[in-house]
């Protein structure tokens, strides 16, 4: 099985995890648990598995957010709701979001099959050097198939993400530089959304872009140079290599089937409006 097969499978699974961050049900459940609206819900919801950690830990593991933005909400969030209450609220939100966006597919036999395959893939994940994965792996596995599927996609996402951060460190890109170079590929977040949602000012964005120009990664127009394109290619390739274990464990046939099931679910979610306009570059979620 090629590394690209694992990448394709992951990219179709990832929206089925991340759609929760854009759903009104998530904010409703987390604010009902005691949190403030907007950014606090994201930071505390995703970091709750780590326990009541400080802002530096969250900024470190999330990587591309401005630490000053994180510090506005963490650790204050833990005084408003316990990590256990937040984790439970997030899972209730997942249940509501999946049923709204996926409809009957959330409870179909294919969902149970997808959950079984995704959970089997996670059997090959290990926690060494992967703090966000390890924290989420210690959470109880939900019994209902659609929630177990989301739990498994979370593990696969954080496992790959932790490895990706190691690659970015090796490439000597800080969080903001990594964000800028990724948006410059024309994939993922649109630049304006990326900058604002991650809490960076225009001045900070421009200063980081200048560092990348001095390094030969960006040109004067902010476009990736030939060296920049190669750098991003190497980053994705190495991320694939570090994240290959779950898909190798699942095998070629299992990975192909999980990819097929994930594609159907993702297309259904996108068709139901899982993500707002003005967030992702055209074609990113296809």
From TrEMBL:
Pfam family, one: HTH_67
Cited InterPro entries: HTH_67
Protein name (record): SalK
């Amino acid at each position: 099985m090629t590394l690209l097969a694992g990448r394709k499978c992951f990219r179709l699974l990832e929206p089925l995890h991340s759609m929760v961050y854009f759903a009104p049900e998530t904010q409703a459940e987390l604010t009902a648990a005691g949190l403030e609206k907007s950014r606090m819900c994201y930071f505390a919801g995703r970091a709750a598995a780590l326990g009541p950690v400080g802002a530096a830990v969250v900024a470190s593991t999330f990587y591309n957010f401005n630490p000053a933005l994180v510090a506005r909400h963490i650790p204050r969030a833990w005084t408003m709701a316990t990590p256990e209450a937040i984790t439970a609220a997030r899972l209730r939100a997942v249940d509501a979001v999946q049923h709204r966006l996926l409809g009957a597919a959330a409870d179909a036999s294919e969902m149970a099959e997808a959950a079984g395959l995704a959970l089997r893939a996670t059997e090959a994940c290990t926690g060494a050097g992967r703090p966000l994965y390890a924290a989420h792996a210690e959470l109880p596995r939900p019994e209902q198939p659609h929630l177990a599927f989301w739990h498994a996609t979370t593990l696969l996402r954080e496992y790959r993400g932790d490895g990706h951060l190691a690659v970015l460190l090796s490439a000597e890109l800080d969080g903001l530089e990594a964000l800028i170079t990724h948006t410059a590929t024309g994939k993922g977040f649109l630049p304006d959304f990326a900058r604002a949602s991650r809490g960076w000012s225009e001045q900070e964005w421009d200063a980081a872009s200048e560092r990348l120009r001095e390094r030969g990664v960006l040109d004067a127009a902010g476009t990736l140079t030939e060296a920049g394109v190669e750098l991003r290619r190497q980053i994705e390739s190495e991320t694939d290599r570090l994240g290959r274990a779950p898909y190798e464990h699942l095998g070629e046939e299992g990975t192909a089937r999980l990819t097929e099931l994930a594609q159907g679910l993702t297309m259904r979610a996108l068709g139901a409006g899982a993500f707002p306009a003005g967030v992702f570059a055209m074609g990113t979620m296809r």
